[in-house]
UniProtKB/TrEMBL annotation:
Protein name as it appears in the record: Glycosyltransferase involved in cell wall biosynthesis
CDD domains in the record: Glyco_tranf_GTA_type
Domain Glycosyltransferase 2-like: 23-141
One Pfam family here: Glycos_transf_2
Organism of provenance: Sphingobium jiangsuense
Length: 354
C-alpha cells in the first residue's frame, strides 16, 4: 500500500523549535466541518503546537480545505492514505507515529473544541504534575438537525467515576459494564504514557473503545493519574454521516473489544447496545461473529437486546422472512423465538397491505 504525505509549500519542514503539542486530526469526507475543527485549535492560546491531519481517502474537498488552511497558518501537515476498510485504529496510530511533541491532542475532523482555554489548562496541568497521564474534557453534543434534542452525554454513574479520579472505578463501573461513553477525541495525553501501554490496537476495528480500555487498565496497573476537567468543553457534532449504518460492523466493533479486553467474569454483566438487523444476511453474519468471539452463552447475552428492535422494525416493513428466521433459525434461544412470534402477525398483516 502506498501512502502520500503532503505538506503545503509554505511548510516544507517543522519549525526550528520542535512542537510541544501534537494535535492529531483524523478525517474523512468532512469538507463542511474540518475548517471549524482546525480553527478551534488555531484560535486557542497554544504557542508551541503542530497539527497533523490524516485524510483517510476522502472523496470530497476535505484535503483541499486542509491544504488551503495550511498555506495560511503554516503549521499543518496533511497525510493522505487510501481507504482501508474502516480500520481507523491504523490511521490513528499512524498519526501518533508520524508526529512529534510531548503531548497529544486527539480529534476527529467533524468535532471542535468549545470557546474555553481547556487545552492550555490541560497542558499546564501535565507540565506541573509528573504523575498525571491525561486530561479528559467534558463532551457536549452539537446537533446539526435543530429538530433533534441533544441526549445527555454522560449518565450519573459515569460522571461520578470520572470525578473520582479513580481508574479502577472507571473500569469496574463503566468500561467493564457498557459500551464506552468516554471518547478519545479532545483528550490531552502525555505521549510517554501512550507509548508505555502501546497506543492503538491496530488489530481492532474499533479505535476509541479499545484505546480507552487499554489506557485505563494501564492507569490502574501503574497508579498513573487522570483528570476530568468539566470546564473544558469538547463539541461532538451529530450529523447524518457519523451515525452507524452497518449493524454488522457496529456489533463487531464492540464484540471484538469485549472479547479481548473485558474480563470473562465481567462479561456476564455487560450491557450491550441494541443494533437493528435489516436482513437475513446481516443476522447470519452477526450471529456467527457473536458465537466466534463470545461463545454460546456470551453470544446469547450479546444478541438479546437486538432481537426486539429488529423484530419490531421487520414487522413495520412487513418482512415476514426475517421474522421467520428469528423464529425458526437453528440454535435460536427461546426468548428470541417468543419475541419473533409476537411480531409475526403484524409483519404478515403489513405484507398483505403492500
Amino acid at each position: 500500500m502506498t501512502h502520500e504525505t503532503l505538506r503545503p509549500p509554505a511548510m516544507t519542514s517543522l519549525p526550528v523549535e520542535a512542537p510541544q503539542v501534537a494535535v492529531l486530526i483524523l478525517t474523512h469526507n468532512h469538507e463542511n466541518y474540518i475548517g471549524a475543527c482546525i480553527e478551534s485549535i488555531v484560535r486557542s492560546a497554544l504557542k508551541r503546537y503542530h497539527i497533523w491531519v490524516l485524510d483517510g481517502g476522502s472523496t470530497d474537498a476535505t484535503p483541499d480545505v486542509v491544504a488551503d488552511i495550511a498555506r495560511k497558518t503554516g503549521n499543518i501537515t496533511l497525510l493522505r492514505q487510501p481507504p482501508n476498510g474502516g480500520r481507523t485504529s491504523d490511521y490513528s496510530q499512524r498519526l501518533i507515529d508520524e508526529s512529534t511533541g510531548d503531548y497529544l491532542v486527539l480529534m476527529s475532523g467533524d468535532d471542535l473544541f468549545g470557546p474555553t482555554d481547556g487545552i492550555e489548562r490541560a497542558i499546564a496541568a501535565l507540565e506541573t504534575t509528573p504523575g498525571l497521564a491525561l486530561v479528559i474534557p467534558r463532551m457536549v453534543y452539537l446537533m446539526q438537525d435543530p429538530a433533534r434534542t441533544a441526549p445527555p452525554c454522560h449518565e450519573a454513574g459515569l460522571l461520578t467515576a470520572l470525578r473520582s479520579g479513580d481508574a479502577d472505578m472507571v473500569l469496574r463501573q463503566h468500561l467493564y459494564r457498557t459500551v464506552s461513553r468516554i471518547f478519545l477525541q479532545a483528550m490531552v495525553l502525555r505521549r510517554s504514557d501512550v507509548d508505555a501501554f502501546g497506543g492503538f490496537d491496530t488489530e481492532m476495528l474499533a479505535d476509541d473503545f479499545a484505546f480507552v480500555l487499554r489506557l485505563f487498565r494501564y492507569l490502574s496497573e501503574t497508579g498513573r493519574a487522570f483528570r476530568f476537567d468539566e470546564s473544558s468543553i469538547w463539541l461532538y457534532r451529530v450529523h447524518a454521516s457519523n451515525v452507524h449504518r452497518d449493524p454488522v460492523r457496529q456489533f463487531t466493533l464492540i464484540a471484538e473489544v469485549v472479547a479481548r479486553y473485558v474480563p470473562a467474569d465481567a462479561r456476564r454483566h455487560f450491557h450491550w447496545d441494541a443494533v437493528v438487523i435489516e436482513n437475513h444476511a446481516q443476522l447470519a453474519a452477526i450471529q456467527a461473529k457473536a458465537f466466534d468471539l463470545l461463545g454460546k452463552a456470551g453470544a446469547m447475552r450479546a444478541l438479546r437486546p437486538t432481537m426486539r428492535p429488529t423484530a419490531r422494525a421487520a414487522a413495520r416493513r412487513g418482512d415476514v422472512r426475517l421474522i421467520c428466521r428469528l423464529l425458526l433459525g437453528k440454535g435460536v434461544p427461546l426468548l428470541q423465538r417468543v419475541t419473533a412470534a409476537r411480531y409475526l402477525p403484524k409483519a404478515m398483516a403489513r405484507g398483505l397491505m403492500k
